Amino acid sequence: MRLFFLLLPWLELFTLIQLGIETSALTAVLYVFATLVLGLVVLRRQGRQMFERLQGVQQGRVLGVDLLMDDMAMGLAGLLLIFPGIISDVAALVVMIGPLRRRLARALGAPQPEPYAPGRDFDSEITIEGQFTRVDEDKKP
């Protein structure tokens, strides 16, 4: 695995050179610029959606861990699109396709996510809200 990450920049460079040879240098440069812009758009959109979901959790809505993981996966796809090269762009496309991403995660043995509900007692189905004071801090000399 280490060898792959050491060779990845060289493989990316090779693929871009091959793209330039097969088409033209201008096409390769435009391809890199277009994927950079697309990656920035994906990151910006996912960041905004993730922020809105986290605001919803503060208002008491339930945050599904799978939704949060999907947001993070799309952020990773945006980062992969920003890096120049065709290999990272193909990896970004794999991450961006939801069913393929989930199937790949199951194949790699990822645990099934459970939804998170803030302040919820799963035994009694009652949510307790209020203020509290730490008693042990009052007794300190």
Our count of helices gives 6
Q: In sequence order, what are the helices and strands, one letter per element?
A: HHHHHH
> In what range is the share of β-strand residues?
under 5%
Distance between the termini: 57 Å
Number of domains: 1
- Briefly note the structural class of the backbone: mainly alpha
> Any idea what the radius of gyration is?
22 Å
Helix content: 55-70%
Give the averaged pLDDT, no decimals.
Answer: 81
Number of strands: 0
Query: Which residues sit in consecutive blocks of at least 5 with pLDDT less than 50?
Result: none
Name the shape in a single word: elongated
**How many strands, what sense, and barrel or not for the largest sheet?**
none
Keywords: Membrane, Transmembrane, Transmembrane helix
Transmembrane segments: 25-43, 76-98
Pfam families: FxsA
InterPro entries: FxsA (IPR007313)
